[in-house]
Design goal:
The complex is a heterodimer of chains A (382) and B (358). By secondary structure, chain A is of the alpha/beta class. In chain A, 42% of the residues lie in helices and 13% in strands. Chain A contains 13 helices and twelve strands. In chain A, strand 5, helix 7 and strand 6 form a beta-alpha-beta unit. In chain A, helix 2 packs parallel to helix 8, helix 3 runs parallel beside helix 4 and helix 9 runs parallel beside helix 13. The longest helix of chain A has 22 residues. Chain A is globular. Chain B is of the alpha/beta class. Helices cover 25% and strands 30% of the residues of chain B. Chain B contains eight helices and 17 strands. In chain B, a hairpin with a 2-residue loop joins strand 16 and strand 17. The chains are: A alpha/beta (382), B alpha/beta (358).
C-alpha cells in the first residue's frame, strides 16, 4: 500500500522496454541504425505530447523527476534573473516535494535567491489568497512560481488554474509526478509554463521522466554536453526507457477513469474501516479534489517509524514523511505545513493504494492495524 | 526469540547480528542515529554517526537477510550522554561516555523500545560473555583480553542484563574478521572504532573548549605557588603528565602530574607522582550486574578503573549507596567521575562512579 512511492512495471511497458533494448543504435547518430531508434523516440514523444496536452517539442526527456524539477527551478531562475536582476524571488507551496524545495534552497544558499512559501490550509490546499496578495505586491521581483499538481503525501489536488491566472506572465512550474496518469492532466488547458511527469509512478521503468516546457521559452541548462533534447538536456537519449514510459502512459490514461474509480472505492473502504475501528485516528485532508489512492492518517500518540516497522513485520508496506540522507526518519514537512504539531506529523502514515490492491488487502491490513497502533504508542518513542 | 540487533556499521555488530539470525532467532537490524547532523564520511577510526556507517549497517543487514531500520536516538543521546559528558568535565570530573551510552541508550532507550514493540532483547557486537547461573544471569570477561568490553557494560543492572545478548564474547577479534569475510560482509576489514564518537576530530580538549569556553586559570603546586596558566581546567585529567606547559622545573627535576582539578576556582594543582598515589576508592550509585553482594560485608575481588586498565586486587564492601574499595597496592592517578568496576575473578560484580579517593 505504498503505490505513491513506485508501482510495478506494467506488462505493456516491460514488453516495450525489452523489445526496444534489443535494438542497436544511438538516437543521435546519422546512420540508418540511429535513425531507426530516433524514429521510435519521436513516435513516443508525439504520443506522450498528445497524452499530456502539449506539443512534441515541449517534451524534454530527463533521467528522473528530480532532474526535471531541478532543470525547471534552476533553469527558470537563472534565465529570468539574467533578463532582470531584480527577479530573485521563488514562490513555492510550503509542502512541495523535496525535489522542488531543495533546489530552491540551493539557489537561496548559492545564487542569491529568496524563497517565499505559500501557506497550506487545513484542507491540504495552498492559500490562494496569500498568493494573490503576494504576487500583486511583488510581481516585478518574482522569478517563478512552483506549485505541485497534487500533494504526494495527502493526495490533495491544487488549484493550478487559479495559480496560473494569478501569475500572469510569471512562469509557473508544476510537479505533476503524482497526478499524471492518475487524474486528468492537460498541460495546455492549465496554462502551465512547465511541468514534471515521471514514468515509474505509472508503471513505466525507473530512470526516465520528462519536463514539459512551453515552446519558445528558454531555461538555462543544468547538464551540458551533446546538446540533446533541444540543447536543454544533454546526455544520450534513453530510447528504450522513453518508449516504455510512453507505453505505460498510454495504458494508464487509456484506463484512467475505470482505475481511478476502482481505487477510489478502495480508498473509501479503507477510510471507513480505519475511522470505525480506530476511533482516535484522524484522516488528513480527506475532502475535496483528491488523487484516487492516497489516505493520510494520524494515529495520535504513535511514532510513525514504529507503525511502519510493525506493519513491515506483517509484510504490509506503507510510508511516512521522508528521511534524511542517513535514513533518519523526519516528521512530515507536509503535515507541519498544514499546521500540525511535530508530534502529530510524526504520528502520521500514508497509505497509497494502486491497481495492484484489492479489498482483501485492506481486510488483511485491518486485522493487524489496531494492534499495531496500540503497540506503537508514545512510550516506545525513539 | 525476537531480537533487535543494534548495528553500528562496524564488523562486530554485523557478525553478532548474523550469528543470532543464523541461530534461528527472528532478528531485525537497527542503526541508531545518534547525531542530528551526521557527517558524510568516517574520519579516522570513529564508529557510527556518519552516512557511510548507516549505509554499511544497512548493507550488512541486507547481506545477512534481516529487515533494517534506523532509529533516531539523537535527542536521547544528547541529553543522556553528551550533556552529561560536558557537565562532568565542567565539574572537574572525568566521565566515560561509552558507559553512559550503554546505560542510558543501548540497554535503556533501545531495549525499552524493542520490548514495547514485542521484541525480547537487544543484541550487540560487544565483547563480553553471559552465563546462566542459579541466582540468574551473570556477565563475564570476553575470551579475547584485548577486546574485552565487560568494563563498559558493567552499568547494566540485572533487568537490562536479562535483555542483552553478546554473541561475540567467546570469540577473538581476528576470528570475527575472518567470519565476516566468509559471510560476505564487506565491513570485514573496517578499522576498529576508537575515541569518542561525538568528538569528530578526536581532540577532546578542543571540543570541550568550544563548548565550555577557555577561561584562563592558574596551574599551581601543592603549596599554592603559581607555576603557569591553562585555558580551562576541565581539559585536564587527574594523573595527566603531558601538555601541562609548565616552564618552571620541579626542585628535584622529577616530572609533575595533575593532582587535582578545582572547577570553582578554575585551578589545576600539580605535583609529584607520589602525591597521586591512592589506596582507597569510593564509588557512588552502585549498579549490580547480577547477584547483589551482602551489604556491610568485606569481599575480595578486583577493581578496574579504565576500559583497558589492569584489574587491581582489592577488598570491597557496600552499603547500598556506595561501594568502598581498599586496594592492595597503591594506584597512581584516578579522577572522580571515572567508572569503577568490581570483578570477582572474570565475573562482573557491579559498577559505580568514582566519587572520592584517598
Amino acid at each position: 500500500m505504498d503505490n505513491a512511492a513506485t508501482v510495478p512495471l506494467s506488462d505493456v511497458a516491460a514488453d516495450a522496454l525489452t523489445t526496444a533494448m534489443r535494438k542497436i543504435g544511438n538516437a543521435s547518430s546519422v546512420h540508418n541504425f540511429g535513425r531507426a531508434v530516433r524514429k521510435g523516440v519521436e513516435d513516443a514523444r508525439e504520443e506522450l505530447a498528445h497524452l499530456v496536452g502539449c506539443g512534441p517539442t515541449e517534451v524534454i526527456f530527463t533521467g528522473s523527476g528530480t532532474e526535471a524539477n531541478n532543470l525547471a527551478i534552476k533553469g527558470f531562475y537563472w534565465t529570468r534573473r539574467a533578463e532582470n536582476p531584480q527577479r530573485t524571488i521563488i514562490v513555492a507551496s510550503a509542502f512541495e516535494h523535496h525535489a522542488v524545495l531543495d533546489p530552491i534552497e540551493w539557489l537561496v544558499e548559492h545564487e542569491g535567491a529568496e524563497q517565499v512559501l505559500i501557506p497550506v490550509t487545513d484542507a491540504g490546499v495552498i492559500d490562494i489568497e496569500f498568493l494573490r496578495t503576494f504576487v500583486a505586491a511583488n510581481r516585478e521581483r518574482i522569478a517563478l512560481i512552483a506549485v505541485m499538481h497534487s500533494n504526494n503525501e495527502l493526495g490533495t489536488i491544487q488549484p493550478i488554474a487559479d495559480v496560473v491566472a494569478i501569475a500572469g506572465d510569471i512562469p509557473v512550474h508544476s510537479d505533476a509526478v503524482q497526478s499524471f496518469g492518475k487524474v486528468p492532466f492537460d498541460f495546455a488547458n492549465l496554462g502551465l509554463t512547465s511541468a514534471t511527469i515521471s514514468a515509474h509512478k505509472i508503471g513505466g521503468p525507473l530512470g526516465v521522466a520528462a519536463l514539459i516546457l512551453q515552446r519558445g521559452l528558454d531555461v538555462t541548462p543544468v547538464l551540458h554536453g551533446g546538446g540533446q533534447e533541444r540543447d536543454i538536456r544533454s546526455g544520450t537519449i534513453n530510447a528504450p526507457a522513453i518508449i516504455a514510459f510512453v507505453a505505460a502512459a498510454r495504458d494508464s490514461i487509456g484506463h484512467l477513469n475505470e482505475r481511478a474509480s476502482a481505487i477510489n472505492e478502495l480508498r473509501e473502504y479503507l477510510i471507513s474501516r480505519i475511522t470505525r475501528e480506530i476511533p482516535a485516528a484522524l484522516i488528513n485532508a480527506a475532502s475535496g479534489a483528491h488523487l484516487p489512492g492516497i489516505v493520510n492518517v494520524t494515529f495520535p500518540g504513535t511514532e510513525s517509524d514504529a507503525v511502519l516497522l510493525l506493519l513491515d513485520s506483517h509484510d504490509i508496506a506503507a510510508s511516512a514523511g521522508s528521511a534524511c540522507s542517513a535514513g533518519v526518519p523526519r516528521p512530515s514537512h507536509v503535515l507541519m505545513a498544514m499546521g500540525r504539531s511535530e508530534a502529530d506529523a510524526d504520528a502520521s502514515i500514508r497509505f497509497s493504494l494502486g491497481t495492484i490492491n484489492t479489498k482483501a488487502d485492506i481486510d488483511i491490513l485491518m486485522t493487524v492495524l489496531p494492534d499495531v497502533v496500540a503497540k506503537a504508542s508514545k512510550k516506545v518513542s525513539a | 526469540m525476537k531480537l533487535v540487533a543494534a548495528m553500528s556499521g562496524g564488523v562486530d555488530s554485523a557478525v553478532a547480528a548474523a550469528r543470532v539470525a543464523e541461530a534461528g532467532h527472528e532478528v531485525i537490524g537497527v542503526h541508531l542515529a545518534l547525531s542530528s547532523n551526521p557527517q558524510k564520511y568516517r574520519s579516522g577510526a570513529r564508529g557510527c554517526c556518519t552516512i557511510e556507517d548507516s549505509h554499511d549497517a544497512r548493507r550488512a543487514a541486507d547481506v545477512i537477510g534481516i529487515p533494517f531500520y534506523i532509529w533516531d536516538m539523537a535527542e536521547e543521546f544528547h541529553e543522556g550522554v553528551v550533556e552529561n559528558f560536558m557537565a562532568e568535565y565542567a565539574n572537574g570530573r572525568t566521565p566515560n561516555p561509552c558507559l553512559r551510552c550503554n546505560e542510558k541508550i543501548k540497554f535503556a532507550a533501545v531495549l525499552e523500545r524493542a520490548k514495547a514493540l514485542g521484541f525480547d532483547g537487544v543484541v550487540t557486537g560487544h565483547y563480553a560473555q553471559m552465563r546462566e547461573t542459579e541466582p540468574g544471569r551473570t556477565m563475564h570477561r570476553a575470551v579475547d583480553p584485548a577486546k574485552d568490553q565487560s568494563y563498559v557494560l558493567a552499568v547494566l543492572n540485572t533487568e537490562q542484563l536479562s535483555g542483552a545478548y553478546f554473541p561475540l564474547g567467546d570469540t577473538v577479534k581476528d576470528e570475527v574478521r575472518i567470519e565476516a569475510k566468509k559471510r560476505g560482509l564487506y565491513v570485514a576489514n573496517k578499522p576498529d572504532s576508537h575515541d569518542i564518537c561525538f568528538v569528530p576530530s578526536g581532540d577532546n580538549a578542543g571540543w570541550l573548549r568550544e563548548r565550555l569556553g577557555s577561561e584562563v586559570g592558574e596551574i599551581v603546586d601543592e603549596s599554592g605557588k603559581k607555576l603557569g596558566e591553562h585555558k580551562g581546567a576541565y581539559t585536564y585529567t587527574i594523573g595527566q603528565r603531558k601538555g601541562l606547559g609548565i616552564t618552571v622545573p620541579a626542585a628535584g627535576g622529577e616530572p609533575r602530574y595533575v593532582l587535582k582539578i578545582e572547577p570553582k576556582t578554575n585551578t589545576v594543582v600539580v605535583g609529584s607522582k607520589e602525591a597521586l598515589a591512592i589506596s582507597h576508592i569510593d564509588g557512588e550509585k552502585p549498579i549490580w550486574c547480577g547477584p547483589v553482594p551482602v551489604a556491610a560485608t568485606d569481599y575480595r575481588g578486583f577493581a578496574q578503573i579504565r576500559a583497558h586498565g589492569s584489574p587491581l586486587a582489592c577488598t570491597y564492601r557496600h552499603d547500598g549507596e556506595h561501594i568502598s574499595v581498599d586496594l592492595d597496592e597503591p594506584l597512581f592517578g584516578l579522577a572522580t567521575g571515572q567508572g569503577l568496576v568490581i570483578y570477582d575473578g572474570d565475573r562482573v560484580v557491579g559498577s559505580a562512579t568514582v566519587s572520592s579517593t584517598l
